[in-house]
Amino acid sequence: MISLLLALPAAVGLWLVTAGRDVSVALARIVTAVSAVLTLGVAVVVSAAGSSVDRAWLPDLGVRWSFGVDGIAVPLVLLTAAIGVLVAAHAWVDLPAGGSPAAFLGCLLLVEAGALATFTARDAVLFFVAFELVLVPMWVLISRYGDPHDAAARTEAGYRFVLYTAVGSTLMLVGILTLVTSAGTSDLWALADGASRALTADRQLLVAGLLVAGLAVKVPVVPLHTWLPSAHTTAPTAGSVLLAAVLLKMGTYGLVRLPVATVPDGFARLAPVLAVLGVVGIIWGGLICLVERDLKRLIAYSSVAHMGFVVLALAAGSETGLQAALFANIAHGVISALLFFLVGGLKARWGGVDLTVSRPALRESSPRLGFLLVLGLAASLGLPGLAGFWGEFFAVYAAWSPADGRPRAQFIVCAVLAAVGAALAAAYSLRVARTIWVGDALREGERVTPDAHGTELGILGVLAASVIVLGVFPGIVLDRTAGAVSQLIAWWP
Q1: The predicted structure's pLDDT at residue 443
Q2: Which of 214, 218, 279, 311 gives 20 to 30 Å between its CA and that of 258?
Q3: Stretch 47-57: mean pLDDT, rounded?
Q4: Is residue 443 part of a domain?
Q5: Phi, psi of 56 (to 5 degrees)
Q6: Where is each NADH:quinone oxidoreductase/Mrp antiporter transmembrane domain found (predicted)?
Q7: Is the pLDDT confidence value at 444 over 80?
C-alpha cells in the first residue's frame, strides 16, 4: 500500500507532464482529481495500518528502498494527501495561463508525490533524493505558471527558489554523508536508536550544523527566508498552497527526523542560536506584515513568523516543545492553505490585492468570503479555540521551561519576545480585516465582489472546518504524535 501511495501520484503526474497538450483540459482535470482522491484513500489506509516496505536498493552503498510511517509522519502524510485533493479540485475553478494545463496539473501531482516520499522515507539517502524530487516541478509552477502579467518577476522568483534550495540541499547532503559514513548506516531508525552515538562531540556538532543550515532554507529560518515572499507572490494559487502547506513542512520535518533525532547532542549545542533566529523571524515577519501592501506577500511573511514558533519549540528540546512544533506544523498547513485560497480568489476577482486600494466591504458584498477571511485571520493570530492557538501557546510554554542544559534565562527572554510577536500577529490581522472585511461603503455603479460558491466554497469550507476542529480537538494530532515523540526522547542519551 505504501508503494501505491507513492507510485500513484508520481505515475499520473509524469504522464500528464510528458503528454502535455495531447491531453484535453477536461481529461487532465478528471485524471488529476481521481488520482488525488485515490491517493488520499491510500494515505488513510497506510496511516491506519502502518504499512511499510524495506528492500535492497543500492546494496554496495548500504542504501535500502525503505518507506514507512510513524506517529510523526502520519499527520503530515494525511495533510499532504488532503491538500492534494483540494488543489486538484481548485483546478476546476482556476487554471493558470502560461503553458499546458495537463503539465500544470502533472507538476502538482509530482510535488505531492515527492512530499509523500519525503515524509515516509526511512533511509537518510532516500530522504535526500525524495526531498530533491520536489525542486523541479515546483520551479516549473513558479517560473512558468506564475503571475502572467510579470514574466521578469516569475523568472527571478524561480531562479531564487532554485538557488536557495540547491545551496541548502548541498549542505544537507554533506551533512547526511558525514553522518552516514561516521555511523556506518543510513537507516534513520537505527541512527535515532543510537547508531550515531559513536560520533565524537565535535563530529555531532559538525553534522548538526550542516543539517540545520541546509534544512533552515526550506523552513525557512531568518535570514535564509528571502526566497519565500517572491515565490509566494508570483506563484499560482495552487502552487502557493502547496508551497506553504506542504513544502515548508518538509524543512521542519527534516529538522525533527535528522539533527534532532540522530545527533541530539550536536543539535542541543546549536539550539540557543536556533531559538534566537526563530524569535527574530517571529518579530521580523510581524513587523513587515504591519506595513506590507500586497496581501499575498503579507501572508507569505506571516508564514515566516509562524514557522519561527516551530523553530523555537524545537530548540527548547523538551517533549512539550516537540509536540508543539509538530502540531504547529499541521495547524499552519491548514491555515495557510485557507488564506492562500482566499487571497487567490480575491486576486482573481479584483485583479490585484493591494491593501492601499479602496474596495467595497466584504462583509456586505461577499459575506461568505468575508466570514472565511476573518476566520483564517483569527486562526493565524492564535485565537483560542482555533487551530493556530495550541502550537503557539505550547511553543512559548516550552521556551519558558526548556530542557536541561539549555540556557534558561535566554529561553525565557525568547518566550517573552515570541509572545510579543503573537501580539504583532493580532495587529496585522486586524489591519487586514479593517481594510478588506470592513472596507468602504459600496459606491454607486461599483461592481460587487462575487461571493464564493460551488467548488470554491466547498474547498474553503473544508479548510475552515479543519481549522475549527483542530482548535477544539487538538488531541486529534497530539494523541497521534505522543507515542513517537516519547520514543524519540527515550532514545536520547
Answers
A1: 61
A2: 279
A3: 82
A4: yes
A5: -65, 135
A6: 121-401
A7: no
